[in-house]
Amino acid sequence: MKSLTKSDVWLLRHGKTTGPAALNGQTDACVAPQTQTQITQVLARQNLPYRQVISSPLSRCLDLATRLTDDDKVMIQPDWKEMNFGDFDGVPFEQIPPERWAELEKFWENPVQYPLTGAETLAAFYQRVSACWTRFTGDLQTDTLVVTHGGVIRMILAQVLNLDWRNPALFTRLNIANQSLTHLEVVTGEYDFVTVKSVGVQLAK
């Protein structure tokens, strides 16, 4: 029988990006250095006992991750990048042509039925994230901090809570704010079990 291992996993969403409001999916938007410093200082005061740091390769996450541990100790996980929003990815809302707003509004109402032009489908996004989560928990041996994106955290929660990943409410009603922590307890052994300890707790300034 495989021995039981209990690990804490903290999912940290990156800070607010600079520039005009946009769907910054896989566009490599940046977070202001002073914001990254502030997040680092707050986490240091919390003294979370993580032993490893895993990060999305996008700089809004990776820059923060390298501030939280030695650069050469950050494990980069490409499958935990944000969803690719196709033609709308990284385009400021104020620059979206009026005739294309209807496409965006339909996507928010039902992202499965109305995918964005050129975008990753929600099904592909969920499959990418959930497969990565399964691999991650299968090898998990220690407390871990994952620096990633709001959409990724929502898809992980959908998997561990057995929620319908197609439900638009995961994006419109579940608040995973910038620089917030979601805490999971992962028990691995003959059977794996995940407990959600807290969701989207905003880091105090």
Write the layout of secondary structure elements.
Layout: E1 5-13, H1 33-46, E2 52-55, H2 59-68, E3 74-76, H3 101-109, H4 122-139, E4 144-148, H5 150-160, H6 169-172, E5 180-188, E6 193-202
Parallel strand pairs: 1-4, 2-3, 2-4
Antiparallel strand pairs: 1-5, 5-6
- List how many beta strands DSSP finds: 6
Low-confidence stretches: none
Strand order of the largest sheet: 3-2-4-1-5-6
Separation of the first and last Cα atoms: 46 Å
In the CATH scheme, the class would be Alpha Beta
The CATH superfamily label reads Phosphoglycerate mutase-like
Q: Roughly what is the average pLDDT, rounded to an integer?
A: 95
What is the alpha-carbon Rg in Å? 17 Å
What name does the CATH topology carry? Rossmann fold
Q: Assign the structural class, choosing from mainly alpha, mainly beta, alpha/beta, alpha+beta, or little secondary structure.
A: alpha/beta
Overall body shape: globular
Mind explaining what this structure looks like?
With 205 residues, the chain is α/β, with parallel strands linked by helices. It has a single domain, classed as Rossmann fold (3-Layer(aba) Sandwich). The protein is built from six helices and six strands; from the N terminus they run βαβαβααβααββ. It has helices at 33-46, 59-68, 101-109, 122-139, 150-160, 169-172, and strands at residues 5-13, 52-55, 74-76, 144-148, 180-188, 193-202. It has a six-stranded mixed sheet, with helices on both faces. Helix 1 packs across helix 2 (59-68) and helix 4 crosses helix 5. The model has no long low-confidence stretch (mean pLDDT 95).
